[in-house]
Design a protein that fits this description.
This protein is an alpha+beta fold. It has five helices and 13 strands.
Amino acid sequence: MVISPVILNLDSVYLSDEQFYQLCQNNQELKFERNAHGELTIMSPVGGESGNRESELMIDLGIWNRQTQLGYTFSSSTIFKLPNGGDRSPDVAWIQRERWENLTPEQRRKFPPIAPDFVIELRSATDQLEPLRQKMWEYLDAGVKLGWLINPQQQQVQIYHLQKPVELRNLPTELSGEDILPGFRLSLSLY
Protein backbone atom coordinates (compact mmCIF):
# COMPACT_ATOMS: atom_id res chain seq x y z
CA MET A 1 0.00 0.00 0.00
CA VAL A 2 1.35 3.43 -0.99
CA ILE A 3 0.44 6.28 1.33
CA SER A 4 0.63 9.73 -0.23
CA PRO A 5 1.51 12.87 1.70
CA VAL A 6 -1.49 14.60 3.24
CA ILE A 7 -2.37 17.88 1.52
CA LEU A 8 -4.50 20.34 3.42
CA ASN A 9 -6.15 23.12 1.43
CA LEU A 10 -6.15 26.18 3.63
CA ASP A 11 -8.29 28.44 1.45
CA SER A 12 -10.39 29.35 4.49
CA VAL A 13 -7.42 29.55 6.87
CA TYR A 14 -4.57 31.95 6.31
CA LEU A 15 -1.25 31.28 8.01
CA SER A 16 1.20 34.15 8.12
CA ASP A 17 4.87 33.32 7.66
CA GLU A 18 5.36 33.57 11.42
CA GLN A 19 2.36 31.31 12.11
CA PHE A 20 3.68 28.73 9.65
CA TYR A 21 7.10 28.91 11.30
CA GLN A 22 5.52 28.41 14.74
CA LEU A 23 3.41 25.49 13.46
CA CYS A 24 6.63 23.80 12.30
CA GLN A 25 8.45 24.60 15.55
CA ASN A 26 5.57 23.33 17.70
CA ASN A 27 5.30 20.07 15.73
CA GLN A 28 8.90 19.15 15.08
CA GLU A 29 8.04 15.47 14.73
CA LEU A 30 6.15 16.36 11.53
CA LYS A 31 7.56 17.70 8.29
CA PHE A 32 5.50 20.47 6.67
CA GLU A 33 5.67 22.28 3.35
CA ARG A 34 3.45 24.89 1.68
CA ASN A 35 3.17 25.31 -2.06
CA ALA A 36 2.90 28.71 -3.76
CA HIS A 37 -0.92 28.52 -3.46
CA GLY A 38 -0.80 28.12 0.32
CA GLU A 39 -1.71 24.42 0.39
CA LEU A 40 -0.12 22.78 3.42
CA THR A 41 1.47 19.36 2.97
CA ILE A 42 2.44 16.99 5.76
CA MET A 43 5.23 14.89 4.32
CA SER A 44 5.54 11.17 4.95
CA PRO A 45 8.79 9.92 6.45
CA VAL A 46 10.97 7.89 4.09
CA GLY A 47 12.18 4.35 4.60
CA GLY A 48 15.74 3.16 5.00
CA GLU A 49 16.55 2.77 1.31
CA SER A 50 15.36 6.28 0.40
CA GLY A 51 17.04 7.75 3.47
CA ASN A 52 20.33 6.12 2.53
CA ARG A 53 20.10 7.29 -1.10
CA GLU A 54 19.32 10.83 0.02
CA SER A 55 22.28 10.76 2.41
CA GLU A 56 24.63 9.56 -0.33
CA LEU A 57 23.50 12.40 -2.62
CA MET A 58 24.12 14.89 0.19
CA ILE A 59 27.59 13.45 0.82
CA ASP A 60 28.57 13.68 -2.88
CA LEU A 61 27.44 17.30 -3.12
CA GLY A 62 29.02 18.14 0.24
CA ILE A 63 32.42 16.73 -0.73
CA TRP A 64 32.40 18.76 -3.96
CA ASN A 65 31.35 21.88 -2.02
CA ARG A 66 34.08 21.46 0.60
CA GLN A 67 36.66 21.19 -2.16
CA THR A 68 35.42 24.22 -4.11
CA GLN A 69 34.00 26.33 -1.24
CA LEU A 70 31.61 27.90 -3.73
CA GLY A 71 28.50 27.79 -1.59
CA TYR A 72 26.45 26.07 1.09
CA THR A 73 24.65 22.73 1.08
CA PHE A 74 21.36 22.00 2.84
CA SER A 75 19.54 18.85 3.91
CA SER A 76 15.87 17.99 3.59
CA SER A 77 15.29 19.44 7.07
CA THR A 78 15.71 22.99 5.70
CA ILE A 79 12.61 24.91 4.63
CA PHE A 80 13.18 27.74 2.16
CA LYS A 81 10.72 30.65 1.94
CA LEU A 82 10.57 30.93 -1.84
CA PRO A 83 9.92 34.25 -3.60
CA ASN A 84 6.75 32.79 -5.20
CA GLY A 85 5.19 32.19 -1.76
CA GLY A 86 6.01 28.52 -1.30
CA ASP A 87 7.75 27.08 1.74
CA ARG A 88 9.67 24.11 0.36
CA SER A 89 12.16 21.59 1.65
CA PRO A 90 14.12 19.89 -1.17
CA ASP A 91 15.86 16.62 -0.38
CA VAL A 92 19.21 18.27 -1.17
CA ALA A 93 19.85 21.95 -1.91
CA TRP A 94 22.79 24.24 -2.66
CA ILE A 95 23.13 28.04 -2.62
CA GLN A 96 25.98 30.08 -4.07
CA ARG A 97 28.17 31.54 -1.30
CA GLU A 98 27.61 35.25 -2.04
CA ARG A 99 23.83 34.88 -2.23
CA TRP A 100 23.68 33.05 1.14
CA GLU A 101 26.05 35.49 2.84
CA ASN A 102 23.88 38.42 1.70
CA LEU A 103 21.11 37.16 4.00
CA THR A 104 20.94 38.59 7.51
CA PRO A 105 21.70 36.32 10.49
CA GLU A 106 17.98 36.38 11.38
CA GLN A 107 17.03 35.30 7.84
CA ARG A 108 19.51 32.42 8.03
CA ARG A 109 18.20 31.24 11.42
CA LYS A 110 14.56 30.87 10.43
CA PHE A 111 13.27 29.73 7.04
CA PRO A 112 15.67 31.49 4.67
CA PRO A 113 13.83 33.77 2.20
CA ILE A 114 15.76 32.56 -0.82
CA ALA A 115 15.46 30.04 -3.63
CA PRO A 116 18.35 27.61 -3.82
CA ASP A 117 20.45 27.66 -6.97
CA PHE A 118 20.30 23.86 -7.21
CA VAL A 119 17.95 21.21 -5.82
CA ILE A 120 17.59 17.44 -5.87
CA GLU A 121 14.33 15.63 -5.24
CA LEU A 122 14.54 11.87 -4.77
CA ARG A 123 11.29 10.02 -5.32
CA SER A 124 10.67 7.63 -2.45
CA ALA A 125 8.30 4.65 -2.49
CA THR A 126 5.57 6.78 -0.87
CA ASP A 127 5.84 9.67 -3.38
CA GLN A 128 3.51 10.15 -6.32
CA LEU A 129 5.40 11.39 -9.39
CA GLU A 130 3.11 14.22 -10.54
CA PRO A 131 3.28 16.26 -7.30
CA LEU A 132 7.07 16.02 -7.47
CA ARG A 133 7.05 17.30 -11.05
CA GLN A 134 4.84 20.21 -9.99
CA LYS A 135 7.24 20.91 -7.15
CA MET A 136 10.15 21.03 -9.61
CA TRP A 137 8.28 23.58 -11.77
CA GLU A 138 7.56 25.59 -8.64
CA TYR A 139 11.28 25.62 -7.86
CA LEU A 140 12.08 26.93 -11.35
CA ASP A 141 9.34 29.55 -11.03
CA ALA A 142 10.97 30.68 -7.77
CA GLY A 143 14.39 31.06 -9.40
CA VAL A 144 16.12 27.69 -8.97
CA LYS A 145 18.58 27.36 -11.85
CA LEU A 146 19.05 23.57 -11.97
CA GLY A 147 17.11 20.68 -10.48
CA TRP A 148 17.28 16.91 -10.65
CA LEU A 149 14.26 14.70 -9.98
CA ILE A 150 15.63 11.20 -9.44
CA ASN A 151 13.00 8.51 -9.98
CA PRO A 152 14.33 5.08 -8.95
CA GLN A 153 10.93 3.43 -9.52
CA GLN A 154 11.19 4.10 -13.27
CA GLN A 155 15.02 4.12 -13.39
CA GLN A 156 15.03 7.70 -14.70
CA VAL A 157 16.14 11.18 -13.82
CA GLN A 158 14.50 14.39 -15.02
CA ILE A 159 16.75 17.42 -15.38
CA TYR A 160 15.09 20.83 -14.94
CA HIS A 161 16.75 24.06 -16.15
CA LEU A 162 15.58 27.63 -16.22
CA GLN A 163 14.06 28.36 -19.65
CA LYS A 164 14.86 24.94 -21.16
CA PRO A 165 12.76 21.84 -21.77
CA VAL A 166 12.97 19.05 -19.22
CA GLU A 167 15.63 16.49 -20.13
CA LEU A 168 14.87 12.83 -19.38
CA ARG A 169 17.66 10.29 -18.88
CA ASN A 170 17.56 6.61 -18.09
CA LEU A 171 19.69 5.19 -15.30
CA PRO A 172 22.57 4.54 -15.11
CA THR A 173 23.83 7.98 -16.12
CA GLU A 174 26.28 10.66 -15.11
CA LEU A 175 24.94 14.12 -14.33
CA SER A 176 26.82 17.39 -14.59
CA GLY A 177 26.40 20.42 -12.37
CA GLU A 178 26.99 22.44 -15.54
CA ASP A 179 27.90 26.09 -14.91
CA ILE A 180 25.78 26.19 -11.72
CA LEU A 181 28.04 23.68 -9.88
CA PRO A 182 31.25 23.82 -11.93
CA GLY A 183 33.09 20.51 -11.93
CA PHE A 184 30.40 18.62 -9.99
CA ARG A 185 29.61 15.24 -11.52
CA LEU A 186 27.26 12.65 -10.07
CA SER A 187 27.31 9.09 -11.28
CA LEU A 188 23.92 7.45 -10.83
CA SER A 189 23.90 3.70 -11.19
CA LEU A 190 20.79 1.55 -11.20
CA TYR A 191 18.81 2.01 -8.02
